[in-house]
Amino acid sequence: MFRIESPKLIAGLARITRDIGVAEELAQDALVAALEQWPRGGIPDRPGAWLMQAAKHRAIDFVRRGQLLERKHQQLGHELGAPADPAEALVEALDDELGDDLLRLIFTSCHPVLPPDARVALTLRLVGGLSTEEIARAFLVPVQTIQQRIVRAKKQLAEAHVPFEVPRGDDLAPRLASVLEVIYLVFNEGYSATTGDDWMRPELCEDALRLGRVLAGLAPGLAEIHGLVALMEIQASRLAARVGPNGEPILLLDQNRARWDRLLIRRGLESLARAQAIGGGVYTLQAAIAACHARADRPSDTDWHAIVALYGELARVAPSPIVELNRAVAVGMADGPAAGLAIADRLADALSAYYLFWSVRADFLAKLGRTAEARTELARAAELTTNARERQLLLERAAKL
Amino acid sequence: MRFMVFVKATKESESGALPKREMLSEMGKFNQQLIDAGILLDANGLQPTSKGARVTFNGSKRTVVDGPFTEAKELVAGYWIWQCKSLAEAIEWVKRCPNPHDGGGEIEIRQIFELTDFPEVPEEVKKMEQHFAATKK
User: Among residues 122-181 of chain A, which lie with CB inside 8 Å of chain B?
Assistant: First the structure.
């Protein structure tokens, strides 16, 4: 229950107190009061409203204690004339749409002044409503590490005087990118866990999806939010198909598509359509590529030429050797391995330390009948990967040639 | 975790009477809360059992029974699919739902099995699954 209410409480309070640390404390106080009073008096019909009232009372007290009064009094002066109780008037005047406050909270907790892991921890805590224990478990770090990260983050925000607001104008795009980066970071940690024995942690994917959907609801006019949600929904649709019975990873083209979640695919395609109707961007393009796969009932139904075109777009908008490598794979499927290899060859300098580069080349070479070379490059890839299961897969592929 | 949340039927819903505008509006607001919270995955109302059918299985025998069916409160009038962190959270959201029918009703919550709960299957079953998936649109 608190998970549901606390982000809204914190958001509303943060606008009053201008300090998310204080906001969180006041929210906790309200929740503690609820825990004390509700067992006696019964749970109120509208618990959210009760909590917000309780939190506001505490905020009024806090403001009365003078920390903010002087600054705010001037601000209020020309908005409301001379209120009888400036503190109460301040709090009542901020009875605006909650949605805006939650949006402000998301942008603030994802502020680029904070390092990425601090942004992740703070956002999951304040906006996602996760406990520090849950966050620690999700990222396989001690609880104290998360607690310290969060404490430090709040301090940094206060010291940098980060305003509690939604960025506007030229600031919006980079700040939005920061928010989307945080959400996708959480998703990826769940989708292809970088630490620990599991290859995936689906719960984190759910947390990220939820954050993304909330954001999409709060700021529906921004294409890339829908693009990111689309990408995550479609990727999440494959969670049940990505791992074999022995925990071994299964490549996209080898997956049992009956295990792809049709509901998530449908939702992903809907989000993609929304994104494309508004505009687009890097996440939207990646989602469009994922959608090409999602629409194919069998690997042979895949529209590779569409994927090639999309990678071409992506290469223009956000060029990188990795994008080029992915484009090479798509070209290889659409136009044959020789064409794909030609593109991959140009990436040797940039990607020689990247195990997938050698794996992709090996695949082309094998298809061209250059088996010995393929085997060598698979061995090279196996050396470069840090994931034990990946290494095994690569060595097995080499043995099968 | 995902949950299927069923709204049980009543005599009124089984009669085919459409819900009052006020109820639809309240329900609409509730659905919007679910959307805003990022947890609503799907939602559908089911037509009364007078438009449905049952098939009973007995060995190799199949018997079709046309609706309507009795015991309204055992029937399903609608369902949601939600993504929640726990059953406790799902229960909390259900408590916030407006009364689904005049004069009360019941909502049941069931956790959905995830495919990730089931490991990959042997080749033969896999081929069968893939054939089935490919032929349905």
Answer: none
Q: Which of A61, A96, A131 is the last residue of a domain?
A: A96
Mutate one of A210, A215, A235, A295 to test the B interface: name it (highest B CB count within 10 A).
Answer: A210
**Quick one: pLDDT at residue A292?**
98
pLDDT at A399 over 80: yes
Handedness of CA A321, A322, A327, A328 (dihedral sign): positive
CA distances to A92, A120, A369, A394 from A399, in Å: 72, 41, 15, 9
pTM above 0.90, yes or no: no
Q: Chain B contact for A202, CB < 8 A?
A: yes
Tens digit of each residue's pLDDT (9 = 90 or more) over A117-170 = 999 999 999 999 899 999 998 888 999 999 999 999 999 999 999 999 888 888
How confident is residue A89, by pLDDT bands cut at 50, 70 and 90? low
Task: Give SS3 for B55.
Answer: strand
A295 CB near a chain B CB, below 8 Å? Answer: no
Report chain A's mean pLDDT, rounded to a whole number.
88
Nearest to B36 among A209, A217, A258 (CB): A217
CA dist list (Å): B19 to A22, A93, A307, B14, B93: 45, 38, 46, 11, 21
Q: Residue A349 gets which letter from DSSP? A: H
> Are the Cβ atoms of A261 and B115 closer than 8 angstroms?
yes
* Whether the predicted interface score ipTM is above 0.90: no
Does the beta-carbon distance from B116 to A211 stay under 8 Å? Answer: no
Contact A297 B134 (CB under 8 A): yes
Tell me which of 3.30.460.10, 1.20.1560.10, 3.30.70.1060, 3.40.50.1110 is the CATH number of domain B2-113: 3.30.70.1060
Q: What is the CA radius of gyration of chain B?
A: 18
On the question of pLDDT at A70 being above 70, the answer is: no
Give CA–CA dist A338/A267, Å, rounded: 37
